[in-house]
Amino acid sequence: MAIIGPRLSKSTYLRGKQCHLHLWRYFHAPDLAAPADEAQQLVFDTGHEVGKLACRRYPGGHLISHDHEHQQEALEETRQVIDAGTAPALFEAAFEHEHVLVRADVLERLPDGGWRLVEVKSTTRLKDVLVLDVAVQLWVLRGAGLDVREAGVLTLNRGYVYDGVRLDVNALFKLHPVLDEATALLEGIGGEAQEMRATVAQSEAPIIAPGKQCTSPYVCPYYAHCTHGLARPEHGIGELWKLGKNSRSKLEEAGINEIKDIPESFPLSPLHQIVHTAVLQGRIQMHGNLTEALARIKPPVRHLDFETFAPAIPRFAGTRPHDSIPFLFSVHTEHDGQSPAHVDYLHEGEDDPRPMLAKRLLDALGEEGSICVYSPYERRMLRELAAAFPQWAKALSAIEARLFDLLPVVRNHCYHPDFRGSFSLKSVLPALAPGLGYDDLAIGDGRQAAALYQRALANDDLAERQQTFSALRAYCKQDSLATLEVRKALVALAGSAA
């Protein structure tokens, strides 16, 4: 593929800031990038939707009509609109300085002269990378001669509660002024941009080893390609759960990458010592009183899992941006000597799923026995449902009181080398219950489930919609079945250790 040219955009500058090899591959070998999955595509789509909403805060603003495939025309249109002096704001305004071209989300004319630069994001928090995002634009705009006097990041406001009638776009967003922080970053941008353009001009890819830059601030889409064929540790020190930076640095400085190579004299936490022993011996390690921990589970034993989605723009009365909304649950109930009974509920309408889900949940869980979950997430969902629907608060609180979280039981009582440093259900299940897992499912994780659910709701093809709903049910069913199988495995381990 031919070099696209020395001109950079804001996004390519940020790619280069993270890794020059990422930048080079973007221009020379884009086909090597992993395609965006459903969850990533939802993030992109949400960003566009939030950007359109933000424009409503600036009535009379002018949208630059030329898209990113017609940048020269966009530059000229921007110049003409600014020179006309009538538009109170510009959207997607185009500017270029020293071969770096940016499109500003919002450029607001200030009453006393000059402009405010506003970057719109669908997050609710101000992050360092967003300040750098603004700094690059500020460097270009001022370099192009524009009098930019203020700059900010416009995020969604977690404090905004939707009334269910009309979105208040002024209250929905929160402006974070970042002019001082962005100005402090300006000095190095020009030199870095020149270095990046020089990298792009090279015919050969720069030699950069995989490292922390592969995942921060974003996961690189070329990571799989860059790491393909690399020798990996059998059990690397990254499998030491929550290993501190100082300990990691000391091990790396000593050239130790494998857990098995850690000397006995190296100070390890009690859990890390258990992991170390499990790896050395190649078998599960038991610790603590597992029998006593499991004794708190009371029959009839049920297993609960929720699936949720978190719309950036609130859809239902009483919700905030990025609130988690449960739309599906699965419950397995154990019966001695019989196959476990299963019931679920998936809300197939576009209205608020929570009222009907709460009603069905109360029916499914009964009034007695422990309800096994894996992680504190189900507890949080029950509390939020109780807060949202006072009429069921007492009953939902009673369900919450019956929850039994298996995650800390696993973490505090056993470690298998096949956990590979993770206590997630997807890591624990196949290790404790060989032959069981998620590999044969169409949906692999909760982020994908949330994205596919939202896509299904917008899909007019009823057959495709139902196919997605079936896949969602199968995934959630596997999660509640997984907690059941993990409990059975733990009971067996406790019996063998007695």
Task: Give a brief outline of the structure.
The protein is α/β, with parallel strands linked by helices and 498 residues long. The chain contains 19 helices and 14 strands. It is globular.
List keywords for this structure.
498 residues, alpha/beta, Lambda Exonuclease, Chain A, Nucleotidyltransferase, domain 5, 3 domains, 43% helix, 16% strand, globular
Q: What can you see in these coordinates?
A:
The protein has 498 residues and is of the alpha/beta class. The protein folds into 3 domains: 8-200, Lambda Exonuclease, Chain A (Alpha-Beta Complex); 233-282, no CATH class; 291-497, Nucleotidyltransferase, domain 5, CATH 3.30.420.10. Helix content is 43%, strand content 16%. It has 19 helices and 14 strands. It has helices at residues 10-18, 20-28, 38-55, 71-84, 128-143, 169-172, 179-183, 189-201, 223-227, 245-253, 270-281, 290-294, 354-365, 377-388, 393-401, 406-413, 425-432, 446-457, 462-497, and strands spanning 8-9, 62-63, 89-97, 100-109, 115-120, 148-156, 173-177, 285-286, 302-309, 325-335, 338-346, 371-373, 403-405, 414-415. The strands form 3 sheets. Strands 1, 2, 3, 4, 5, 6 and 7 form a 7-stranded mixed sheet that branches. A 5-stranded mixed sheet has the order 11-10-9-12-13, sandwiched between helices. Strands 8-14 form a two-stranded antiparallel ribbon. A hairpin with a 5-residue loop joins strand 4 and strand 5 (115-120). The model has no long low-confidence stretch (mean pLDDT 96).
Judging from the principal axes of the Cα atoms, what is the shape?
globular
State the helical fraction. Answer: 40-55%
Number of helices: 19
Distance between the termini: 65 Å
Number of self-contained structural domains = 3
Tally of DSSP β-strands: 14
Structural class: alpha/beta
CATH architecture of the largest domain: 2-Layer Sandwich
**What kind of oligomer do you see?**
single chain
CATH top level label of the largest domain: Alpha Beta
Largest sheet: 7 strands, mixed
CATH topology description of the largest domain: Nucleotidyltransferase, domain 5
Radius of gyration: 27 Å
| pLDDT averaged over residues | 96
Uncertain segments = none
Strand content: 15-25%
CATH superfamily of the largest domain: Ribonuclease H-like superfamily/Ribonuclease H
